[in-house]
Design a protein that fits this description.
The strands form four sheets. A five-stranded antiparallel beta sheet has the order 8-3-5-4-12, with helices on both faces. The protein has a three-stranded antiparallel beta sheet with strand order 2-1-13. A three-stranded antiparallel beta sheet has the order 9-10-11. A hairpin with a 5-residue loop joins strand 4 and strand 5. The protein has 13 helices and 13 strands. It is α+β, with helices and mostly antiparallel strands.
Length: 436
C-alpha cells in the first residue's frame, strides 16, 4: 500500500502555533579586568557610608553632610569633570605656547574598529600613528624636516550613542617650532593629504601586526570613500584664553553625559539622546539596564592607560629641557628681595569649591537659608564614627563589616571530637517505604 501524499498528511496535522519572537541579542562587549574594579567605585560616588565632610553655618547653625567622590576617571561623570577642569586649566596655563591653535579629529572606518576593541593595546599605537601622520603633514607643508609639531592628543573610544568608536582629538599648534624656539605658522592647507597619510599608517600598522589580511587591505583601498575621516576647526588666537580652555575641556570630556539620559520606569528602559543619526533617522537610542551598563563600561580605560598624550614641542621631555635651560640661564640674574615669594613650581590645584563654582556658578559653602558663608568643621572617614552619626540621623544603609578570619585550628584534633548521640531525625528506610 502506497503512503498517502504529503499534502494530505499536512492537512490532518494540527496547525503549529507561531514561534514567539526572539528577544534581541544583548549588545555586550567581553568583560575586562578593570570593569569589576570600577563598578563598585562608581556606586560609591555620593554615598555617605564611605565618609563625608561636615559643613556648618555659624550664623543660623544650618549644617549638612557632604559625601566623598569615588575618584574614578573616564567613568563617573561627576568625578571626571573635576579632572576635566584641572587638566584644561593646566594646559592653558603651563603647556600651550602663546601661538594659534586648532583642534583635529582623526577617525577610522567601521570595519577596523573591532581590531582595536579586542586588542586594547593597539590604542596606544593608534595615538603614535596619529602623531606621526600630523608631523609628516606639517613638516612637508612648511618644508622643515627637523622642526617639531606641538600637540596634545586625547583618545576617545565612544560615539554619540555609546558605541565603540575609537577616534582621536588633537589640540595642535597651527605651525611648527624649530630648536631655537622660533614658531613658523602654517598656511591654509587641504586635509586630503593628511587623511591619506593617516590611512596608510593605520593599514601598515595592522598588516605589520598580522591582524589585517592583505585581501581586506585591497578592499579598503578600492573604496571610493576610504572610511577614514579627518577634520579640523578654525584656529584660535593665543589671546582667547577662555576659548582655548573651553576647547581643552571639550576634548577631555567624559564618555557618559547624564543630561542625555532618561529613565523610563514603566518599561525599565533607558533612553539616551544625542545628535540626529542620519542612518536610523532618529536622535535617541533605547537600552535595557544591562545593555546600558555594558555600553558605558566598555569605555573604561585599562589600568595605567594614558588617555591624554603630549607630543613634540609639548612632550614631557622637551618641556623639561626648556625648564632646565630657563633655570640655568637665570642663575646669574640678581637675587630677589627676601620679601618676594618664589614662583610656584607647580600650578596650584583648584579646590572643589572653586571647581563647583566654575562649573555650576554656585558656591557650595554659602548657606542656602541665610546666605552667609559656611565652613567645614569636620571630615569623617572612620567607619565606626560614620555608622554612629548616620544611624542617629536615620541615614545608615550600609552593610556591617565582615568579621575577621578565624585562626586556624590546633593540630590536636581531640578537642573537636564529640561523643556520639542518638539521631533526632534518623535516615528513613527507603527500601521498606518503596515496597509498602
Amino acid at each position: 500500500m502506497r503512503p498517502p501524499p504529503l499534502r494530505r498528511v499536512r492537512r490532518t496535522l494540527p496547525a503549529r502555533p507561531p514561534a514567539p519572537p526572539r528577544p534581541p541579542a544583548p549588545r555586550r562587549s567581553p568583560s575586562r579586568p578593570q570593569i569589576p574594579r570600577l563598578r563598585p567605585a562608581g556606586r560609591q560616588a555620593g554615598n555617605l557610608d564611605r565618609g563625608f565632610a561636615h559643613p556648618r553655618c555659624d550664623h543660623c547653625r544650618h549644617e549638612y553632610l557632604l559625601a566623598f567622590s569615588c575618584k574614578s576617571r573616564w567613568f563617573c561623570p561627576s568625578c571626571h569633570q573635576k579632572n576635566v577642569q584641572t587638566t584644561a586649566a593646566f594646559l592653558t596655563a603651563r603647556v600651550l605656547a602663546p601661538v594659534p591653535h586648532r583642534h583635529y579629529v582623526l577617525a577610522i572606518p567601521k570595519m577596523l574598529r573591532p581590531y582595536f576593541q579586542r586588542h586594547r593595546t593597539l590604542l596606544k599605537s593608534l595615538c603614535a600613528v596619529a602623531h606621526q601622520s600630523l608631523a609628516e603633514y606639517l613638516r612637508a607643508a612648511l618644508d622643515l624636516p627637523d622642526a617639531y609639531p606641538a600637540l596634545v592628543l586625547t583618545l576617545h573610544t565612544f560615539g554619540e550613542y555609546l558605541d565603540f568608536h575609537p577616534h582621536l582629538y588633537a589640540l595642535v599648534a597651527d605651525g611648527l617650532f624649530t630648536r631655537d624656539g622660533a614658531f613658523h605658522p602654517l598656511p591654509p592647507l587641504p586635509l586630503k593629504p593628511l587623511e591619506e597619510l593617516f590611512r596608510a599608517h593605520v593599514l601598515k600598522l595592522l598588516v605589520t601586526l598580522k591582524l589585517l589580511p592583505p585581501e581586506r587591505v585591497r578592499v579598503l583601498l578600492s573604496w571610493k570613500h576610504s572610511g577614514f575621516n579627518v577634520h579640523h576647526g578654525e584656529p584660535v588666537p593665543p589671546e582667547h584664553q577662555a576659548e582655548l580652555e573651553k576647547l581643552a575641556q571639550y576634548i577631555l570630556r567624559n564618555p557618559l553625559s547624564v543630561a542625555k539620559m532618561t529613565m523610563e520606569s514603566p518599561t525599565d528602559t533607558i533612553i539616551y539622546r544625542s545628535k540626529l543619526n542620519p542612518k536610523i533617522n532618529r536622535n535617541f537610542e533605547v537600552f535595557t539596564p544591562t545593555d546600558f551598563l555594558a555600553a558605558i563600561t566598555q569605555h573604561i580605560p585599562d589600568k595605567g592607560a594614558q588617555m591624554v598624550r603630549y607630543y613634540g614641542w609639548y612632550s614631557n621631555k622637551m618641556r623639561g629641557q626648556r625648564h632646565r635651560a630657563e633655570n640655568g640661564g637665570a642663575a646669574s640674574a640678581p637675587l630677589r628681595p627676601p620679601s618676594t615669594p618664589p614662583p610656584p613650581a607647580k600650578l596650584p590645584s583648584k579646590k572643589w569649591r572653586d571647581l563647583i563654582l566654575q562649573v555650576w556658578h554656585t558656591d557650595p559653602l554659602i548657606c542656602p537659608r541665610c546666605q552667609h558663608p559656611m565652613r567645614v568643621i569636620a571630615v569623617i572617614d572612620q567607619r565606626v564614627v560614620i555608622e554612629k552619626i548616620l544611624r542617629h540621623l536615620g541615614q545608615w544603609s550600609g552593610t556591617p563589616p565582615l568579621a575577621p578570619a578565624r585562626a586556624r585550628p590546633n593540630a590536636d584534633a581531640g578537642s573537636w571530637i564529640r561523643e556520639p548521640c542518638d539521631d533526632v531525625d534518623p535516615m528513613p528506610d527507603y527500601e521498606n517505604a518503596l515496597t509498602d
